[in-house]
Amino acid sequence: MAEKIATRAAYGDALVELGAKNDKVVVLDADLAHATMTLKFAQAYPDRFFNAGIAEANMVDMAAGLSTMGLVPFCSTFAMFGAGRAYEQVRNSIAYPKFNVKLCMSHAGVSVGEDGGSHQCIEDLALMRVIPGMTVIVPADAKEARKAVMALAEFNGPAYLRLARLASPVFEEDYPFEIGKANVLREGGDVAVFACGLMVSEALEAAKLLEADGIRASVINVHTIKPIDAECVTRYAERCGKVVTVEEHSVIGGLGDAVADVLMGKVNCTFRKIGVEDQFGQSGKAADVLREYGLTADKIAAQIKSSL
């Protein structure tokens, strides 16, 4: 069985590694350092860590100011608060002036589990994707989370990195990571499955179940929602003629809509979005909540099969 590590844990380790390489890196948190794993950086580099308290809007504005001094701020809290409560500051204080701030928000999606619908942010990709000039990344596993952190440190401009609370499988293969370039993890000619975040491993397992029924699925890890890899999306949609997107996010405004925007009016294909329908999450164990919303391998396979 594959090792399981949460992307938030990999993020915390990556910050410590990055801090040793780049003394311009600073980290901010909104009193959730134990949960977001930024505590690791705080312990290693206390002079470069800033706890803004439960004041997310202030934290974002602090990060904006620090970036004007040539520093590289990594800003963290729960996605619901960082993308939601501080939205105006993210938009006007960071994105509008194109400041070099990395918004790395944890506890996204319904896999937050017991914290319930108030904390299960299923709108963050839509909110961040619509902001002009905002880069949006959703790593699929711990390895990719680390690579994304390193890439963002070198990338100049505002960016949003979505991280998960739940420990998820770490892929055995070491895939390359490049902002804006999707990774094809499995080849098949019957249906193209585009997935992001925790849903990539579920999509791969779903593809194995489909193969047992004679259905060959390509699985593409779209870790960068914006700018999306339009060439890859178009190529596999044309090759397969059937497209399915899978995301732990609302079906409104996230990966599904990003893929649809690429294909609309250009590729003649059938299309289905799998994700959270127009509803809030609910409290429960992460595995149970994912199953309730149809976001487990068997449920995904069944939905793909019915759409074919």
TrEMBL record:
Keyword hit for Acyltransferase: no
Name of the protein this chain belongs to: Transketolase family protein
Co-factor(s): thiamine diphosphate
Pfam families: Transket_pyr (PF02779), Transketolase_C (PF02780)
Organism: Oscillibacter hominis
TM region(s), chain numbering: none
Claim: Ribosomal protein is one of the keywords in the record: no
Keywords from the UniProt entry: Thiamine pyrophosphate
Domain of life: Bacteria
Family named by the database record: Belongs to the transketolase family.
InterPro entries xref list: PDH/Transketolase, THDP-binding, Transketo_C/PFOR_II, Transketolase-like_Pyr-bd, Transketolase_C
Domain Transketolase-like pyrimidine-binding: 5-170
